Amino acid sequence: MIYDYKPSRSGKIPKEFLKDFSGYLHVDGYSGYNNIDNVTLVGCLAHVRRYFNDAYKLIENSEDAKQSNTAKGLAYCNKLFDLDRESKKLDIKDRYDFKQEKIKPVFDEFLTWLNQASMNALPQSKYGKAITYALNQLPNLMHYLELGELDIDNNRAERSIKPFVIGRKNWLFN
């Protein structure tokens, strides 16, 4: 992993920094990565899951929360994470095969469900925003299936920069 801190989130920064790079780039949903040449963006399931989790927290104490569509979206994310954990026990080639045989069908089923669920979701509700975010991110997220060594999330990178993000806020007036 390589980190290059800049005070701005302008899309010009990653484009300039990665101008000589080609390959796969694990990213969150930030649109500044969309215009980088010669890279394949790999989305993050943790970000998709967070949207469904936030929506579920609003209804978790209701009687039918466990049968809700919000719970179904969260369950798809959890199932994908469970399968990914299982795949990490395998070597890279077997992991690729496992992704194709076990994980890809779940992604396809999730995409079908998202398309159907989007027809009845209120766009400005937490649930509607989770559906929209997932639909927007799933094409990049499914690039994860292309190689055995690709991760389903970018949590490792995010955890490693977390001290700097927290520090930036804490050191603001020092």
Poorly predicted runs: none
Main sheet, how many strands, which sense, barrel?
2 strands, parallel
Order of helices and strands: HEEHHHHH
User: How big a fraction of the residues is strand?
Assistant: under 5%
What is the number of helices? 6
Helix content: 55-70%
Number of strands: 2
Q: What gap, in angstroms, lies between the N and C termini?
A: 29 Å
Q: Mind telling me the C-alpha Rg?
A: 18 Å
User: Please, what is the average pLDDT?
Assistant: 90
Q: What structural category arises from helix and sheet content?
A: mainly alpha
Strand order of the largest sheet: 1-2
Shape: globular
What does this entry look like structurally?
This protein is mainly α. Helix content is 57%, strand content 5%. The chain has helices at 12-17, 45-59, 69-87, 92-118, 126-141, 155-170, and strands at 23-26, 39-42. The chain has a two-stranded parallel ribbon. Helix 2 (45-59) packs antiparallel against helix 3, helix 2 (45-59) packs antiparallel against helix 5 and helix 4 (92-118) runs antiparallel to helix 5 (126-141). The relative contact order is 0.16.
Overview features:
mainly alpha; 6 helices
Summarize the entry for a quick read.
The protein is mainly alpha-helical. It contains six helices and two strands, in the order αββααααα.
